[in-house]
Amino acid sequence: QKEVEQNSGPLSVPEGAIASLNCTYSDRVSQSFFWYRQYSGKSPELIMSIYSNGDKEDGRFTAQLNKASQYVSLLIRDSQPSDSATYLCAVGGTGNQFYFGTGTSLTVIP
Amino acid sequence: KAGVTQTPRYLIKTRGQQVTLSCSPISGHRSVSWYQQTPGQGLQFLFEYFSETQRNKGNFPGRFSGRQFSNSRSEMNVSTLELGDSALYLCASSLVFPGISNTEAFFGQGTRLTVV
User: d(Cα A109, Cα A11) in Å, to the nearest integer?
Assistant: First the structure.
């Protein structure tokens, strides 16, 4: 069973700060990684995917991948109250099967 | 562009009954995956269908089954419902490219199943 670990939080940051969300995974051969945001009572929404070591930026979001350390992170710059949600890390398996962490709850305080 | 559509949104069933959930993927997406989400276990993979064939299967009992039609729409069925089957059932659709695994998956709104 592939393991995906996330700190469940809750993580609280003030509005305008940088929120840092972390994820580690157990399968060394994993090649694809995804971050999803899930608001309470809603379904997961894809934020971004990352496949190569290094940083990938999309607006206020930056995903960072370090395959040697089996670590992937998501930075949210200029955090807004609307960013308050649970953030799910997903790691690709065979086909389009994903393994999900249990999520980190983020609260952005106005 | 329409997103992933799941029906029904809510269901209440009695133990021992069976239930069928439906998922229509994004147009052009031929891979459909199903997940169960519960507060205690998070998102757990049920199965994936591509070209009307089950390509992957998670660790769920045989009471959970699915199928995919030629138009890529998918259904999942749960027979002999148990209280523990109460969960949010999510469908995700993905594009498929030859030789490439794990393309981005987009989720539907889910079906909230309550077993009483």
Answer: 10
Say how many CA atoms lie within 13 Å of B103 toward its Cβ: 15
H-helix or E-strand containing B67? strand B64-68
Strand partners, A72: A23, A65
Contact A95 B55 (CB under 8 A): yes
- Name, in order, each residue with C-beta under 8 angstroms of B41's C-beta and a sequence gap of 6 or more: none
- Provide the shortest C-alpha distance from residue B42 to chain A (in Å): 5
Q: What pLDDT shows up at residue B1?
A: 65
Residue B19's CB is within 10 A of a number of other CB atoms, namely 18
Q: What is the spatial distance between Cα A69 and Cα B50, in angstroms, rounded to a whole number?
A: 33
Q: Is the pLDDT confidence value at A96 over 90? A: no
The C-alpha atoms of residue A5 and residue B86 are separated, in whole angstroms, by: 24
For residue B56, the chain A residues in CB contact (below 8 A) are: 93-97
Q: What is the mean predicted confidence (pLDDT) over A80-88?
A: 97
Digit-coded pLDDT (tens) for B77-101: 999 999 999 999 999 999 988 777 7
Whether residue A81 is preceded by a cis peptide bond, meaning omega within 30 degrees of 0, is no
**Region B17-32: what's the mean pLDDT?**
96
